[in-house]
Amino acid sequence: METVAQIFRSLEDETRLRIMALLLEQEELCVCDVMAVLQMPQSTVSRQLSLLKKAGWLKDRRVGVWIHYSVSRTLSPMHQYLLPVLRNFLAVTDAARLDRERLAERRKSCCP
C-alpha cells in the first residue's frame, strides 16, 4: 500500500505535474531545460525530479555536469495504468501549453 501512496503523492504537486507533462511529450530533457521552461531554480527542479524518480516515474543519466531525465521504460503496472490518464489530461492544460511553447522557443534560440 505504501508504494501506491508514494505514486499518488508524487503527483500532488503542480510543479511535478508540469514536469511530467513535458517529459510525456519529449524523449528526454536536461535539468537545464526544465529549469528554463519552469523558470525555477536548479535546487527546486532537481528536488521535484528526484521525487518523481523515487516514485518510479523517471530514469536519469548523467552527461557531463548535467542530468537528463526521461519517463522510465520499466514502469510498474500501476504506473502504466496511470500514464495514459496523465498524458491525456495534462496535455490540454494551459500550463502545459505554455511550457511547451517556452521549450520550443528555448530550442530555437539555443540549439541549432
From TrEMBL:
Species per Swiss-Prot/TrEMBL record: Geomesophilobacter sediminis
Domain annotation HTH arsR-type: ranges: 1-97
UniProt keywords, alphabetically: DNA-binding, Transcription, Transcription regulation
InterPro entries attached to this UniProt entry: ArsR-like_HTH (IPR011991), HTH_ArsR_DNA-bd_dom (IPR001845), Metal_resp_trans_reg (IPR051011), WH-like_DNA-bd_sf (IPR036388), WH_DNA-bd_sf (IPR036390)
A GO molecular-function descriptor: DNA binding
Superkingdom of the organism of origin: Bacteria
Name used for this protein in its record: Metalloregulator ArsR/SmtB family transcription factor
Alphabetized Gene3D superfamilies for the sequence: Winged helix-like DNA-binding domain superfamily/Winged helix DNA-binding domain
Coiled-coil region(s): none
CDD domains, per database record: HTH_ARSR
